[in-house]
Amino acid sequence: MSTTFQLDTSTSRAHPTPAPMKRLTVPAIRQRKKDGHTAEPIVMLTAYTARQAQLLDAHCDILLVGDSLGQVIYGLPSSVPVTMDMMAAHGAAVVRGSYHSVVLVDMPFGAYEASPQDAFAAAARLLKDTGCAGVKLEGGAAMAETVAFLTARGIPVMGHVGLTPQAVNLLGGYNARGRSEAEAAKIVDDARALAEAGAFAIVVEGVVEPIAIAVTEAVDCPVIGIGGSARCDGQVLVAEDMLGLFERVPRFVKRYADMATTISDAAATYAAEVRARTFPGIEQTYQPK
C-alpha cells in the first residue's frame, strides 16, 4: 500500500488516501512489444486535472499530460505558447489523481530543442515538480541525440513523429503527413532514429495509414497511433475530443459520448430553475431544527 490523493466529494478537496500502488512502469510498457508484436494494445488518453485523472486512470495504461492543454484548457491558438509552469502544474495534478497509469508530461515548445543539456534541465524539473514517470518530446532524427542524452541520465522519453503540432508554423497546418514518398521515408527513418536512441515508445500522429503500419513494423519499441492505424501497438486521443466536448471532430477521432450537450442541457435546466426561484428547494437549504 502507498498513498495517493483522492478528492473528497463533500468538500472538493484532495486528501491523502491509502490506495494499492501497483502503478504501471515505463519498462512494463516497453515490454508489451515482444518480437515486433504487442499482444495487448496500449491504451493512452490525455489528462489535465486531478479529477479527470481519477476518472480515466483505471481504464488506461498511460495518461499523457499533453501540451494540447494550451488549446483545450487555456483557449490558445496552438500548443506553441504553452509554458513549463503550465505543464508542471497540470502534471502534478494528474499524478495526484492517479495510481495505476504511467503518467507522462509533454515537453513544451522551446524547452528542449536548443541542446541536450537544456532538455535535461527542463525534463528534470518536470520529473521533480510532478512525480511523473517520463517525458514526451516531438521531432525525429534531429532529436535523437537529446533522447539518448536524457535516457542515459535516467529520464524515460517517448518520441513523437509524423504530424508534430509544435511545428505547425513550419508545416503550415495540421494536414496528414507522409503523402509523398520522400516524406513517408523520412517519418520511418525518424522513428528508427528515436528508437535507436533509446525512446521507450513513439507516438505517430496524423499520417497516412501505410506509414503508421511501416513505423510500427520498423521499430522494436511500442508505437502509439493517433490518426494512424489500428495496427499500431496502442492508441491515444485527447480525452475531450473522445468525450465530445468540442463541436469540431477531427477525422481520426471517434466520439464515445456527447458531453457538450449534457453539460449545456444541465446548465440550461439550472438557469431556468434559478430564474423561476425553484432552486434551491427544501432539500438544498438549511432549516431550523
By CATH reckoning, the class would read Alpha Beta
Secondary structure class reads alpha/beta
How many DSSP H or I helices?
11
The amount of beta strand, in percent, is 15-25%
Low-pLDDT stretches: none
Topology-level CATH name = TIM Barrel
Instruction: Give the integer mean of the pLDDT values.
Output: 92
The domain count comes to 1
Q: Fraction of residues in helices?
A: 25-40%
**What is the 3D form?**
globular
Number of strands: 12
CATH-level-2 architecture: Alpha-Beta Barrel
Quick one: biggest sheet?
Answer: 8 strands, parallel, barrel
CATH superfamily, by name, is Phosphoenolpyruvate-binding domains
List keywords for this structure.
two-stranded antiparallel sheet; 37% helix; globular; 8-stranded parallel beta barrel; TIM Barrel; alpha/beta; 289 residues
Word description of this protein:
This protein has an 8-stranded parallel β-barrel, surrounded by 6 helices. It has a two-stranded antiparallel sheet with strand order 1-2. It has helices at 26-30, 50-57, 69-72, 84-96, 116-130, 144-152, 168-171, 181-197, 209-218, 239-242, 259-275; strands at residues 2-8, 13-19, 33-34, 37-38, 42-46, 62-65, 102-106, 134-136, 157-162, 201-205, 223-226, 234-237. Helix 2 (50-57) packs across helix 4 (84-96), helix 4 (84-96) packs parallel to helix 5 and helix 8 (181-197) runs parallel beside helix 9. Helix content is 37%, strand content 19%. By secondary structure, the chain is of the alpha/beta class. It has one domain (2-237): Alpha-Beta Barrel (TIM Barrel), CATH 3.20.20.60.
